[in-house]
Write a structure and sequence with these properties.
The complex is a heterodimer of chains A (112) and B (114). Chain A has 112 residues and is mainly beta. In chain A, 0% of the residues lie in helices and 50% in strands. Chain A is globular and about 40 Å long. Chain B is mainly β and 114 residues long. In chain B, the strands form 2 sheets. In chain B, strands 2, 4, 5, 9, 10 and 11 form a 6-stranded mixed β-sheet that branches. Chain B starts with a strand and ends with a strand. The chains are: A mainly beta (112), B mainly beta (114).
């Protein structure tokens, strides 16, 4: 039981490049989330998926797209990376009817 | 949407003293309030949480209080130890149209000095 697994752990992109951050959970949770964390700003919600087949915008969705591939996997895509997207990205999942959120170990992304 | 404010942004205490971190939230529909501890380079770790039908919860040296009327909640750490040094985040969970969402405060850097 690995919990929430994120790949890659580190990534450096050039401005304008694209990439996909992967997230998978093995806890059979319905809801999954993508957050970004910047110094002094806490964690801000980018997108979330309440259940398989649904996605919704969070607080800071611009520049990102998501795909809920199946119940286990929720990916975050940057189509044209910008330096403002340099951040640490955390994926999380939550079981329906339960309050606890489980976080992945994060992806540290640098856009140069 | 929900807005969570957290104070102070930094807190320095002597070992053995108590530390208090305060948060306010804006949406009265929020019903779950977790606190996370984050060490440098690590993921947030849940340390305690409280639901909206409870006013206080305690777990060893850590306690959380909730005042629904005033829409604020606080984290209390007693007998602080050097290993308590970390960044602490409060959060508020709300059921919105698309499902539950967790909104975080901006964090408190706690330093416990020997």
């Amino acid at each position: 039981n690995a919990g929430v697994t994120q790949t890659p752990k580190f990534q450096v992109l050039k401005t304008g490049q694209s990439m996909t951050l992967q997230c998978a959970q093995d806890m059979n949770h319905n809801s999954m989330y993508w957050y970004r964390q910047d110094p002094g700003m806490g964690l801000r919600l980018i997108y979330y998926s309440a259940s398989e087949g649904t996605t919704d915008k969070g607080e800071v969705p611009n520049g990102y797209n998501v795909s809920r591939l199946n119940k286990r996997e929720f990916s975050l895509r940057l189509e044209s990376a910008a330096p403002s997207q340099t951040s640490v990205y955390f994926c999380a999942s939550r079981e329906q009817g339960n309050y606890g959120y489980t976080f992945g170990s994060g992806t540290r992304l640098t856009v140069v | 949407g929900e807005n969570v404010e957290q104070h102070p942004s930094t807190l320095s205490v002597q070992e053995g003293d108590s530390a208090v971190i305060k948060c306010t939230y804006s949406d009265s529909a929020s019903n779950y309030f977790p606190w996370y501890k984050q060490e440098l380079g690590k993921r947030p770790q849940l340390i305690i949480d409280i639901r909206s039908n409870v006013g206080e919860k305690k777990d060893q040296r850590i306690a959380v209080t909730l005042n629904k009327t005033a829409k604020h909640f606080s984290l209390h750490i007693t007998e602080t130890q050097p290993e308590d040094s970390a960044v602490y985040f409060c959060a508020a969970d709300i059921l919105a149209g698309g499902g539950n969402k967790l909104t975080f405060g901006t964090g408190t850097q706690l330093k416990v000095e020997l």
